[in-house]
């Protein structure tokens, strides 16, 4: 699939299109990391990953990055007992939350609970509420990559009204949005969106 700001190769030789859409795969990098290596917005760069592999699927990406960059402390270590719950919620997000929200959004008629991997929409919401009790995060006081993924599902579900706006879900989403890293991310997105709008208008 195309990157968010990429254009189809059919238009790769169209100067106007490449000006509007940059015409290449976008490269996202933390502002501090970019400053360290002298990269500025709109620079053309060649990027190589450090392991020579490609990882897809949201849960797998979260797990892979958290394990390969332990300094961020986003995943319990291999033999940490907390890793069991951590993996459970990563897989629960992909295997239960997402399909339940999609079925709700598309207004699919409920199927017999035994025929669905996630049981029922009500089962998913009940399990999710229990997961966030007592909180504040899925691993209680420890924020992890599982919160990144589950939190994104909850935020999306609340935004699209596919998820019932229960108080525990709203409080959890609010806690995540108050984290400094989240605020830096959203501020950067607003800056980038405004810049792209100016470029499109010009």
Short description:
This protein is mainly α and 202 residues long.
Helix and strand element order:
HHHHHHHH
Report how far the terminal alpha carbons are from each other.
Answer: 28 Å
Q: What is the CA-based Rg, rounded?
A: 20 Å
Overall residue-averaged pLDDT value: 87
Count of alpha/pi helices: 8
SS class: mainly alpha
Biggest sheet, in brief? none
Helix content range: 40-55%
Which shape, going by the Cα principal axes? globular
Which segments are poorly predicted (pLDDT under 50) over 5 or more consecutive residues?
Answer: none
The number of distinct β-strands equals 0
| Strand residue content | under 5%
Blueprint (SSEs and pairs):
Elements: H1 15-21, H2 31-37, H3 58-68, H4 82-105, H5 121-131, H6 145-160, H7 167-177, H8 180-201
What does this structure look like?
With 202 residues, this protein is mainly α. Helices cover 54% and strands 0% of the residues. It contains 8 helices and no strands. It has helices at residues 15-21, 31-37, 58-68, 82-105, 121-131, 145-160, 167-177, 180-201. Helix 3 packs antiparallel against helix 4, helix 4 (82-105) runs antiparallel to helix 5 (121-131) and helix 4 packs parallel to helix 6 (145-160). It is globular and about 55 Å long. It starts with 14 loop residues before the first helix and ends with a helix. The model has no long low-confidence stretch (mean pLDDT 87).
Features:
202 residues; mainly alpha; 54% helix; globular
